[in-house]
Amino acid sequence: MNISAPQQQRQTTAKGEPFYLFRAAGSDYDIGLAKGREMAADILAAWDLFKPNMDAWTRGRPEETCEWLRRNLELHIPWMGEQIRGMADGSGISEDTVMVLNHYGVLWSGGGLFCSSVAVRETEVGPVLGQNLDIGSDDIYFVEELRPADGFATLSDGMAGMCWSPTGVNERGLAVASSMLGSPRREGARPVPRGFPFHFLPRLVIRHCADVPEAIQYLKELTPTIPPGGGYQLNLLDSAGNMAVVDKIEESAVVRQRQDGMNFTTNFSLDAELENWRTGGGETEPNHAARARNIMDRHRAAQGSLSLQWLIDTMRGHEGDGRLCRHGTEDTGGGGYSRLSFLYYPRERRAEITNGRPCCNEYQEFKLETPARGA
């Protein structure tokens, strides 16, 4: 693969610094072109990070892998293929490289992730959605505001070289957070069927759906998710206070709604049947269950009064094995590094994001300024 690119200053910033904000609008090719031109050095840095895993999966046949990925993308998500093509043209990096990079969740499901999210229907500032992304300590992250010609404008986290994101809010006030929902007994199954890469789901939702009911129906119709055993929990919250968690894996889409105005995800399903299938009849991973207990214990202690500060304290908390703010190898509870933390405010189309662990970094504010169409 040709991975050379023009010499360029990196745009992404180190932990604790102000985020780089990438903005683009227009056709999907134009959005990709702008990203490639501005972030070529960052794309190369991300490729260097993920390349060993990509090489192991493709087993020396990257061209065959890229052709399969391209055909699958053209069938299911053609607009993302256009962004990838534009990014390659803008950066001077080969399209195959950018294609493989975007599909790392299909080619290599990163282990040790412990992402947590908490949605609150009503605080003193309205609905708020919190998320800790435990995705490693590398500095390849930024904030992006996109206005595609075909789809809703979105504000989200960004990862260098990628056309997708695990969180975000759109111009209609729909916000999404997520936790991986893998099946240990099925991950890595070959051959991989055609379908929707699980890690693309949050971006698909905020690009195409106006509210939670639309998002639920949309996710039910997206089958199957790939790779086998790869899935997501999507924590959905909109400006009207509608909320739901959709556990989406392979052909399954289980919708759950707690009745107390608070939803959460911690990498396992609260649906007994799906969880039994996911684990192959085994036990839920102790850390996943511990974080769920921690959130529920904090909720009970609040006695129904869930303030914005309650949510911030929950995301920054270090309580026992169920801590939501995690420090990777320093964390004796096992795994995860809370590299980014988010607070999404659907009514204001606004986000607050920490560049680093939430326990020791302040939330930086960003707002989606695009007027809502048809609201």
Description:
This protein has helices at residues 28-38, 40-58, 62-76, 78-91, 95-102, 104-107, 201-208, 212-221, 272-279, 286-302, 308-316; strands at residues 21-26, 116-123, 126-134, 141-148, 154-159, 168-170, 174-180, 196-197, 225-226, 231-238, 243-249, 252-256, 262-265, 338-345, 350-355, 364-367. It is an alpha+beta fold and 375 residues long. The strands form three sheets. The protein has an eight-stranded mixed β-sheet, covered by helices on one side. A six-stranded antiparallel β-sheet has the order 13-2-3-14-15-16, with helices on one face. It is globular, with a radius of gyration of 19 Å.
Strand segment tally: 16
Radius of gyration: 19 Å
* Beta-strand percent range: 15-25%
Fraction of helical residues: 25-40%
Number of DSSP helices? 11
Distance between termini? 45 Å
Q: Could you outline the blueprint of secondary structure elements for this entry?
A:
Layout: E1 21-26, H1 28-38, H2 40-58, H3 62-76, H4 78-91, H5 95-102, H6 104-107, E2 116-123, E3 126-134, E4 141-148, E5 154-159, E6 168-170, E7 174-180, E8 196-197, H7 201-208, H8 212-221, E9 225-226, E10 231-238, E11 243-249, E12 252-256, E13 262-265, H9 272-279, H10 286-302, H11 308-316, E14 338-345, E15 350-355, E16 364-367
Parallel strand pairs: 1-4, 8-9
Antiparallel strand pairs: 2-3, 2-13, 3-14, 4-5, 5-6, 6-7, 7-10, 10-11, 11-12, 14-15, 15-16
